[in-house]
## 1
Amino acid sequence: MIGIRHFSALPFSEREALRYLGYRGVQADGETLSALESVRAEAERALLPAVCWTETDVVRAGNALTVGTVTTESGGLRRNLRSCARAYVFAATVGVGIDRLLVRYGRTDALKCALLQAVGATYVEALCDAFCDWLAERTDGYLRPRFSPGYGDLSLETQRDIFRLLTPEKRIGVTLNASLLMSPSKSVTAIVGISPTPCSVAKRCADCENATCEYRDEL
Amino acid sequence: MKETILTAIERGAFFLDGGFGTMLQERGLAAGELPERWNVSHAEAVEEIHAAYLSAGANAITTNTFGANLLHYGREELRQVVSAALGCARRAVERAGRGYVVFDVGPCGRLLKPYGDLGFEDAVSLFAETVKLVGDRADAILIETMNDSYETKAAVLAAKENSDLPVFVTNVYGKDGKLMTGADIPAMTALLEGLRVNAIGMNCSLGSGHMAELVPKMVAYSSLPVIVQPNAGLPREENGRTVFDEDEEVFAHNLARCLKSGARILGGCCGTTPEHIRRAVGLCKPLSALPVKEKRITLASSYSRALEIGDAPVLIGERLNPTGKKRLRAALTDGDTEYVLGEALRQAEQGAQALDVNVGVPGLDEVRTLADTALAIQTVTELPLQLDSSSPAALERAMRLYNGKPLVNSVNGKRESMDAIFPLVQKYGGVLVCLTLDESGIPDTAEGRLAIAEKIAREAEKYGIAKKDLLFDPLAMAVSADASAPKTTLDALTLIGERLGAHTVLGVSNVSFGLPNREAIASAFYALALDRGLSAAILNPASAEMKKSYLGYLALTGRDANCARYIAFAETLTTSVTSQAAQKETKEDDSLRGAIVSGRTEHAARAAEELLKTRSPLELIDGEIVPALDEVGKGFEEKRVYLPRLLMSAEAAKAAFSRIKDHLARTGGDETKKCTVVLATVKGDVHDIGKNIVKALLENYSFDVIDLGKDVPPERVAEAVVDSGAPVLGLSALMTTTVPAMEETIALVRKVAPQCRIIVGGAVLTEEYANKIGADAYGKDAMASVRYCERVYGGKV
């Protein structure tokens, strides 16, 4: 079965948004912060957060790993799902309202557009966090950090398999473009392993090999 | 012979079937398996489900073709699954000896541009390929579960252009009563009635209880039969099985509620079963459906909201018309969309409720430009647009691509005009401005103008265009030329309102041609026209004089509760004087350079305006703007300044430039540009923020930027480089998957324009990678791109 959850409000981390804007360990000035806040408030009114998800078996055969309809040889995902017999697969979006604002400001206000990109990314991450918290509560076991197509060696092609499994187009309006990107743009698909033991890696990014990534979360 | 499905619906409550996907899953359809394949591989199972719904009492069954399109199937397999689906349904109907077959069309699975990557015409073609396979093997087409108004329009056009079957449409509304892409019930009703579908409604998403609450609103607006197909509530898991939280009893009870509120075509969506339908049919049988009534509500719409033209007079902004406006004319000719969008946003802020869009500049390709401009405006404002052109071809393309039901300006009483324009409104929908003139000119009397209005209304009726969709314009003429002209116009307003019972519109300011202080007398005329019942006026919403007439009228005729709008407006009249004084005080200590460095947009604009009184544009650019941008840019390169501040400065500089452009348009001077730079995000890539930042900065450094947008095929890039002779090309890509497209673009440009320097940028690129794919330079950030273009311009590269 494919479950659907709608969220009415999401927390917002200003620190996270600033990180997307390139501030790392630097204090932003008051004007930047107030511009960010006004864009955040506008974005908040445009949010329509929704998630569709399912729970499925994790099957291993040689180097191949199958999670629902997703079959891959990704070493990253295999490491992530070590000792997991079951996993959740989900698609989450904050809705097309943010894209409408992005297109609008993309044509009229470069500053607001850049701030919105950061705000939208922050909100969709917050949605994923909130959803995974909810999953954790209903789960008899421990959740692994979520793993998305495009992370490490998990190919973007995996998106097609995830879309076949969840059909998020008709459930929450998330569609896959020809270039394997999603519309609305502030959407995420991910696999979350269910492990019998607590996970050694508590935080996202820590498990990623791209140590020079500009957006790496150091905490 | 069996009566048609439409006749059957006229007769009373009509039942469709319920969920299909859940029924297939019960019979073994696996997760991720394409359900339409079962039409071929498990035809008996599909037929059995149809039969179960018919025996439950459904009047019609829908084919198992929700996802049958060329995005999911190859051409041959598509033909097979559609044909097999129709076969299953037809056999079930034959066996039952009753029932209609409705061909099911679901959303295509891709979001349309500009929020997704599928073009509107591509979507129309995609749906058309499926519809063409139906032939006469179904009784109607049901376009269902549509989340997006624009995709809905594409599907309806495909159905109407490729089939003569009746078309039914259901959309997915959330609890807020809106589609995922924003349209509310009045907006969708306007759009779909305009497109001449046969029944409209809602399905999926909500359970029957929530949907029953939305039905009265749709019935209040719709002149068509209303369809309701709710889910059986929300899915949840119980002992490893999917169950829905509304049982058959609750569902049937709520469908009966929908019927009592005026819905007529009833059925179910996800999670509903033949048992749900059986209960609902049983409960509804003793009830009779309410009559479907023609609603005399005049609605134009955008992608999200409808504008009702009725009791309260409507303001239509006139500023997007190049006649007599040098700056707009130049912007349209140069493709300066940003200026056009700025005008649209200003009018929206000033209280316009719809915007007239006219791009009639001699020598300009109006067919392309009107549609492009209208679509661009739709990306920045929710206001409905009034498409304004004397070219039927330009109107047709714009009406087709417009997301919503537009106002259309205009038709007149000439045979040629009516023959050209009415078919467009009949096909695409619209609220049509009708000028009361014909082959013999403009009648001198109010009765003469009424007679033309009556003629137009009669002719419109032949096309099925109701009077509610006509706005008659009895033509305001210059009082300076004929003292009796305004009275004739005003009398005609009264006659058209009272005798024809139709709405009216005027281009108010025409009355003041040839007189000094035109606004003063035009606003007096506007007040008189409002008193005669004028429904809509095309005017400049920035005009305080017009606003005085408008808001004064609303307050004086009981259309402004507690005079609240008037009071709010009156307060702006006094504060604008004080704020001007305040501006004077602060002006002295703000140099233009300082304003740009600190990113204060309004200060920068004012400072530029002040300086232009004594200094040349070039002095401003070289002496103030560029040094300011350099200062901030250097800070950015040295990581002292972060992206938001860089962009604040860019916006401030842009505001200053805008004043310089205004100044040049007034004085007839030319802007000095450095050289042309072509920018594009490569094919397959839809990220354009980086490219947009580069564009903003380059423009501030006086480069002439041709921005091709995102997802641009190599051929278009090459063509633009060759046509413009640009010495620099900037390409952006964000994803590893689109870097090959970048390489391909570079190779093509090298072939056709070897002299052009190419700089590339984007998150996945590195200096090394840029070299590898054959670029001349790598722009690690926006400033680096500017520096490179400066070097190319200076002949240093």
## 2
Amino acid sequence: MHTKHAKHPITYGLLAEFDDQHSLVDAAHRAHVAGYTKMDAFSPLPIEELHHAMALPTTKLPALVLAGGLTGALGGFLLQTWVATMAYPLNIGGKPMFSWPMFIPVTFECTILGAALTAVFGMLALNGLPQPYHPVFNVPSFALASRDRFFLCIEAEDDKFDLDDTRRFLQSVGAKEVSVVED
Amino acid sequence: MATPFSQNAGQAIPELAQQQRTFLMVGAAGAVLSAIGYFTNSTQFFESYLMAYFLVLGFSLGSLGLMMIHQLSGGAWGVIIRQQLGAATRVLPIVTVLFLPIVFGMHNLYEWTHEDIVAADPILKAKAVWLNQSFFIVRAVIYFVVWNGLAFILNKWSLDQERTGDPAIAVRMQRVSAGGLLLMAGTVTFAAFDWLMSLEPHWFSTIYGMLVGGGMLLGSMALQIITLVWLSRRKPLSDAVGSQHFHDLANLMLAFVVLWAYFSFSQYLLIWSGNLPEEIQWYMHRTFTSWRGIAMALVLFHFIVPFSLLLSRVIKREPTSIIKVCVAIIVARLIDLFWLTAPEFHKDGFSISWMDIVLPLALIGIWGGFFLGQLRTRALLPVHDSQFEEALALGPIHGEAKAAH
């Protein structure tokens, strides 16, 4: 397979380069309006409007974090209940074994732990990180995406994708340079 | 800098005058009813008055606290409500006058003012060094001097800044706010000890002042969001205030909901686990009688419900839904103050009087009237705040500018 790729590289998509974030947001929005769906934008800084410009689906992360927090809360509370009433019952100040007010601080901590771990690892998983290889790395100027350049990549898998038409489209929306991305 | 936002709120939004009249009329009607209440049952009048007074005192003091926090922290949230916060703190002179009935009602409210009771009680005798009438009044004077002084100087400089645009004023305001916040923490704590905690003079809790002060911040934030929603429905603020601003303010309000719950639960947990007779009596009156229903209502409506609602991004960003949460929070604040005060006067169980409803309405009417009066004389937004442009950039203006671009 590898040698075949080397001989006949498959086109992954077209990568358009922009000078500033406004041109990128504008181009991404126009690509969305033009009907492109399989595309991705790359920027050295977070751009909040980009999400709306490309009409990306809302992230599932908040729901995951809520679930993680609730799991942590329940786990923490049940663990303490089990320890205090069954595994290692101790009489403290003559209070009932199931003294739930005492369990609240640890339950709270476990909620935060569950929510925070889900937020970090959920974010990585949903983003598909870590990702040691991505076809856009094959375009030399892409290294600037972590410095001062902004990129929009329309993938060849997109139904509307056509090497010449899409290239003309990207140039028409203000791309400084359009390169073919090979896989 | 002449922008539509530097004109007076009273000129830009003429409905403010009408709104102010409505509040003052509610206040006047409430005052007449309250006077009837005073002559029919003066003890109940003072009990209800103390509760209602803390709600409006909290609006002014909480706003003063928020104003100083914003001076130190900066941030778009504070720029957008800065004029409203200033207006709320300038009602403090009225709030100071409104304290007088509590001085006159001392004998009805505080058992430590009765010499025969103190003489028969060794604990109250020992506490008489602090809990005596003349020192109580001296301390009240100190608190009001500190609060009015801070409100006066910060507002004066804020207006100077609007007139001259001198950036040196911002530095001065910041310095005063740093010391001012420390002074506030001390004075609010001791005022809460004096005016609320001493209703049960045997009982003590060191976190009590923070609990009351945290409630003031929460109530003020709810009030300021309600005001902002109302103002931002009208031109020209409808061009400046957007969902991102409400999102920021509501997030801060969520933090205050959690802060209140944290203080409340901390106090409860320590007293519950210590289980000492002189400490638990305060909770015994409030949870082992029919007052328990109010305690449960607080857990539900002062914490669980607003906390869950404020987790939602959609609710926080939508003015028509966030305003409902804010009104509910102010009602919950009143129930909290009711639960802090009323069980001391009715130890056997739940009891409510018509004055518990009329007096808050009367004081909200009076306070709201003077608040809107202050608001009318001010510019809509602080155009000379160093973060004014950034704050505006989060709103709809930025969106329009970009569309044109």
